[in-house]
Specification:
The complex is a heterodimer. Chain A is built from no helices and 7 strands. By secondary structure, chain A is mostly beta strands. Chain A has one domain: Immunoglobulins (Immunoglobulin-like, Sandwich). Chain B is built from 11 helices and 11 strands. The chains are: A mainly beta, B alpha+beta. Chain A: Pfam families: SoxZ.
């Protein structure tokens, strides 16, 4: 169970219709790869965020499968065009079954 | 044909700008639009060093690294600040108090970072910010002290540092601090280790030059705690001191030791006038 997980998202508050905006996302997470061993030589179990999605008004913007080689505190920056006012929904899926959400509204 | 290609290549090589000069650049550091003093005239007590302009280590880093620090969202050190904000409001210890019980919001500690290490007259000792945090924890909260350079401590330092962002460093070196200043200065100019290097050999005599593949800065600590990309975590001043002395192949002092406290005071005083910019981002 990963502790201290906290998603952070930066989305402009408003945009003009059809404009490409930059979205930045960051989630604090240890991203334990499963390859390391602890002091006694026992493998440390894998614990990563394995999927990240972003939706806009129910429509998929981005859907990412994440692998163990991704480093701690994964950061994604991408562009999206905004056709209308609405809400971005961001979702992170943890190996342990936890799901972390964040939502940001945007006006046009 | 072959000859032509060769000359074209040579011309290209010559006309390429010298992007890898080791010195400080002339960029302007602003964090979320707030401009920082990252270069200024050296304080009066540095007259004998021959340095007339003091510069933040930010100027010695590559553009990508610099950009990360200029936006607090991109700055990975801010994650620790978030975590420390939670700790700030968490009740801990026998007195059943949190930091917030006495200090209210962390913004009440604006200006604190800029003047530490600071002489504490009641206790009769020179205190770093970490020592003060631990004193609060043990004396006021009845909680267990943080280990000097563990993540919780570094994060709390980062949270308190952010409140002073942009304020000029202004540590006192007179009065009771003078003794520590002199001691720190002596350490700064003492050659350590098998390589026989003092702090001054690199950071005073050779800043702006290369040390193998790396740029030597002035060794200013106004950006601490620092998020180091190579560590993927925040690093405290004393960790950095220890790393530097270790690299001279010497036995180092311990973090939190009186020697490092004195050295921190001395090195901080060499940055009097630069903005507090922690948590900074470095390579």
């Amino acid at each position: 169970m990963a502790s201290g997980v906290k998603p952070r998202v930066k989305v402009p508050k408003s945009a003009s219709a059809g404009e490409a905006i930059v979205i930045k996302t960051l989630i604090s997470h240890p991203m334990e790869s499963g390859q390391r061993k602890d002091g006694d030589g026992n493998p440390i179990p894998r614990s990563i965020i394995n999927r990240f999605t972003c939706e806009f008004n129910g429509q998929t913007v981005i859907d990412i499968t994440m692998e163990p080689a991704i480093s701690t505190n994964p950061y994604f920056e991408f562009e999206a065009t905004v056709p209308e006012a609405g809400e971005f929904a961001f979702t992170w899926y943890d190996d342990d079954g936890s799901v972390y959400n964040d939502n940001k509204a945007i006006t046009v | 044909m072959k000859y032509k290609a060769l000359t074209a290549f040579a011309a290209l090589a010559i006309s390429a700008p010298m992007v890898f000069a080791g010195g400080a650049d002339d960029d302007t550091l602003s964090i979320d639009g707030q401009e920082m003093i990252s270069k200024t005239a050296a304080p009066a007590h540095m007259a004998e060093t021959g340095i007339d302009t003091i510069m933040s280590g930010w100027h010695f880093r590559e553009d990508d690294t610099q950009a990360m620090q200029m936006d607090t969202f991109d700055n990975p050190g801010m994650i620790a600040v978030d975590q420390a904000t939670d700790a700030w409001n968490t009740v801990d210890g026998t007195a059943e108090k949190s930091c917030a019980s006495c200090h209210e919001g962390p913004e009440s500690l604006a200006g604190v970072r800029a003047v530490y290490p600071k002489w504490n007259a009641d206790a009769g000792e020179m205190r770093t910010l970490a020592m003060q945090i631990n004193n609060c924890r043990t004396e006021q909260m009845g909680a267990e002290a943080y280990k000097y350079d563990k993540a919780e401590m570094t994060a709390m330092e980062a949270l308190i540092t952010v409140q002073s962002r942009g304020m000029p460093v202004d540590v006192a070196i007179d009065g009771p601090a003078a003794e520590y200043y002199e001691k720190g200065k002596e350490i700064y100019y003492t050659r350590y280790g098998q390589l026989e290097l003092s702090c001054a050999n690199c950071h005073e005599d050779n800043y702006g030059n290369y040390i193998r593949a790396d740029h030597l800065s002035q060794g200013q600590i106004n950006g601490f705690p620092t998020y180091r990309l190579k560590n993927a975590g925040l690093v405290q001043t004393h960790n950095r001191f220890r790393g530097c002395i270790r690299d001279t192949r010497a036995e180092t002092y311990a973090v939190g030791s009186p020697e490092f406290v004195a050295l921190e005071l001395y090195v901080a005083s060499r940055g009097n006038g630069l903005s507090v910019e922690g948590p900074s981002v470095r390579q």
